[in-house]
From TrEMBL:
Coiled-coil segments on the chain, per record: none
Entry-linked Pfam families: TrmO_N
Highest taxon of source: Archaea
Residue span(s) of domain TsaA-like: 10-131
Gene3D superfamilies membership: YaeB-like
UniProt cross-references to InterPro entries, sorted A to Z: TrmO-like_N, UPF0066_cons_site, YaeB-like, YaeB-like_sf, YaeB_N_sf
Keywords: S-adenosyl-L-methionine
Entry's family note: Belongs to the tRNA methyltransferase O family.
The protein's name in its UniProt record: TsaA-like domain-containing protein
Amino acid sequence: MTMNFEPFKLVPVGYVRKDGETFIEILPEFREAMDGLAEGDWIKLILWFHASDTPERRNVLKVHPYNNPENPLRGVFATRSPYRPNPVALYTVRIHRIEGRRLYIDDIDAFDETPVVDIKIFVERYDCPKEVPIEEREAHIRKGRMIGEVNLIPRKAEHLDELEEVSPEEYDALILEIGPKTTTLTAKELAELIEALKDVYENLPVEIKDKLRTHVMHSP
């Protein structure tokens, strides 16, 4: 059965540049999308391998992995081959420095002038999935709050039964993301964290606490 697919449009947000160093040059119209990125961040790059974008290469569905004929043929979905129905490439790289619209990154094997389709931050919970006590369906994403580099995502509780039988040490209450790293806090650990933060706050200089109170009073 032959299926007819409607084409859809992808636009480059920037290009890979190789000039002694490797960097991503973001196009001027997408400059604001860089806000929030920082040196040291890990990011996911989505590239379009334009050099492999030919009808012949798009029709290649099996390859010898690593282009070694001694390796048995495998479907391209089980490889990192640039030959595929849509020549999309994924990289995880670290931003070493930011200069204007340039993101200086680790060296990658993409060619100079390769179009960048999108950039996303690296998040361990999504990009390196592992067994975590709080399943995605139980995470209250809309209640998540970001404070600096810390992301707090509470657990939904309305659908849980027999909570009387669950101790605070057993009940996982919060997903805590710091940059790309993810951990989970139990209700007991959350309570201990709150008390520790109270102690930290109480030990702030009086002048700082006064300014914070003034800021809170004048906040809308």
